[in-house]
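Exercise 3.2. Students should predict the tertiary structure of the chain below and write it as structure tokens, then compare their answer with the key that follows.

Predict this chain's 3D structure.
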Amino acid sequence: MESLNKTSVSEFILLGITNIEHLKIVLFITFFFFYMFILLGNLSILAAVIIDHGLHRPMYFFLANLSCLDLFFSSTTVPKMLAGLMMGDMRISFQSCMVQLYFFHLFGCTEALLLTLMSYDRYIAICNPLRYQVLMSNRVYVQMASYCWVIGFVYSLSHTILTSRLPYCNMNKITHFYCDIKPLLKLACANTKLNERLLTIISGFVSTSTFILVMISYIIIGSHLLNMPVGSKQSYSKAISTCTSHMVVVLLYFGIAMCTYLGPSNKETLEQDRLTALLVTVITPALNPVIYTLRNKEMKTALKRTFFKRKSLRKF
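Answer key:
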């Protein structure tokens, strides 16, 4: 608390994405529609999983959690970014900045862990289908998802406390459209080497280890699919469809995360981080509903049952 009292900066100014006025209008319209799509797409998946009893299974429970995380993840940063593009006011109080930083990393870390769990679920379902009900019982998969949230909570809290205790003297302009650790460390008037090392080590460990676990799961799944009997074409195509959807999401998410937090921190990389942050906060959450519904027959059928049948019943 002592360090916080020494902080002379009571608010920060987010520099946003661009200073070009006419470009701000174009970006506002573009990202506003993306954000609306994120809300509608992920809320639709959540509604379908909750209402349709056919989707009350581990795979769709994890997918509902992923949709929930995407909603929160985007809502942590995008509304403030849209307000800045529209009104030009990108001021954020010190306390609000730390809250934003905390929730951004909470949802980000939890999503990385959840994607790993989803790959493990596919591994059990495809490689050990007879033991699936035992290994992925209701109690087990709810506990696993809970652990993801708890680890995300601890991970984010540790980074937020370390960042908030740094003294920020006079510089208060953040080279980003939301509060993140790297840009804030550049503004601190103290030695930040410990913070930078911890960010690289902890974030690097979480992103790299989870990515490796996902890849191991899919290498084993791939090997199993290659050895499947020729007559199991339907099972083969269904497994390929599900795994391909998940792999696209994994490569997008982990690729961006590792580029952002494992690389060096300088002026050029901070500019690149703004672009990659747009991908992870706007583009990826908008793509997830498309990827998981267009390639999933069960989800498409459930969405039709949830929305279209209910509409037809209201007519009568």
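Discussion points: Residues 2-315 form a domain with the Rhopdopsin 7-helix transmembrane proteins fold (CATH 1.20.1070.10). The first helix runs from residue 2 to 6.
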